[in-house]
């Protein structure tokens, strides 16, 4: 077991399987694209143990509470880590998390979108430490997200050669 995977296991966190396309939906892009020493992670949502979109669904905070959205954001990061592992083989090959872009399905005027994403940043710092886990981040609120998910996250990481 790698160092990052051991830290996940210590927290009782499990990486989900590869995403399964919902009926009638075709995904014409890669979940993780490796180019040189960079891996670009497409917008991910939280996944169930079956690889399907995981609720709760809806806008924050009218349909999904801040706490539920934070949990969904962390589950989304697990989906991203699973895609990253499939693409690079070993999560310890991540040299640095460069950017994390979180989009929150937010009610108009909801100004706490950064709070939704804070647990994700904290998780990365815990898993990778301050040198590799520190990252730049945005967390805007948006009017809608695919499948009515409360959070979608994309990222860019540097990987070892």
Radius of gyration: 15 Å
Mean pLDDT: 96
Task: Estimate the global geometry from the Cα principal axes.
Answer: globular
Structural class by helix and strand composition: alpha/beta
Largest sheet: 6 strands, mixed
Description of the molecule:
With 161 residues, the chain is of the alpha/beta class. Helices cover 32% and strands 23% of the residues. The protein is built from 3 helices and 6 strands. Strands 1, 2, 3, 4, 5 and 6 form a 6-stranded mixed sheet that branches. α2 packs parallel to α3. The longest helix is centred in the middle third of the chain and has 23 residues. The chain is globular, with a radius of gyration of 15 Å. The mean pLDDT is 96.
Provide a brief overview of the structure:
The protein has 161 residues and is an alpha/beta fold.
Write the layout of secondary structure elements.
Blueprint: H1 3-10, E1 32-35, E2 38-44, H2 66-88, E3 94-105, H3 113-133, E4 136-138, E5 141-142, E6 151-159
Helix pairs in contact: 2-3
